[in-house]
Amino acid sequence: MAFFLIEWINFIVMISSSFLLTIFYIKSVRPALLEKKIGEVAFKKCYYYRIMASSFMGIILITQIIYFYYPLPIDFPLFFPWDYWISFLIVFLIAVPSLLIIFKGIRDAGEETIRPSRANSLYGGIYKKIRHPQAIGELGTWWIVPFLFNSPFLGVFSLIWIPIFYLFCVYEEKDLELRYHEAYIEYKKKTGMFFPKLKSFKKN
Questions:
Q1: Which residues of the chain, if any, have pLDDT below 50?
Q2: 2-203 architecture in CATH?
Q3: Residues 6 or more apart whose Cβ sits within 8 Å of residue 12
Q4: Which pLDDT score, from 0 to 100, does residue 2 have?
C-alpha cells in the first residue's frame, strides 16, 4: 500500500510541478508587460519567477528518476522494446547537439538568460540566425532521462513540452516587441524562430 502511494504521489508531483514550471516561466518572460503595472521592479520580479521555474524543472527531473523505481501500476510498457544500447545511443545523439546549442545560446545571450533587464540589447552570435536557440536545446534535453532510463512512459509524457515550449516562445516574443518595438519586429523578419531561414544560409 505504501509503495502504491509513492507511485501516485510522485506522479502528482510531476504533473503539478510541470504546471507550475509553465506558469512561472511564462510570467518570467513578460517583464515589459509587468513593467506597465508595477514599474522597473518588474524585471527583478521576473528574475525570481525564472528561478522558481528552474526549481520546478529540477523537481520534475527528480520525479522522473523516482518513476523509474516506482512506475505507475498501469498497463504501459516499462521499457522500450529494443536493447538498452540503442536507448543509450539515442541519449548521446540528443544530448550532444542539445547541450551545445544551449551553451552557445547562454554565451550569446549573457545575463538575459536568467536575469531580464531593460538595459540589455538584442543578442548577437547564434541569435543572428535563430531567435530561440536555448528553447530548442532545452526541449531536446527532456528526452535524455526517458531514454537513459529506457522508459516509454516518460518519453511519451515528455511530449507535453513541445506545445508548452512553443507557448513560452510566443509569450516571450510578444514581450520583446514591447521592449524593443520596431527593432524586434525587423529582427523577426530576418531570423527563424527555431531554425535559420534559407536567406541566412544564402548570405553565408
A1: 200-202, 204
A2: Up-down Bundle (1.20)
A3: none
A4: 53
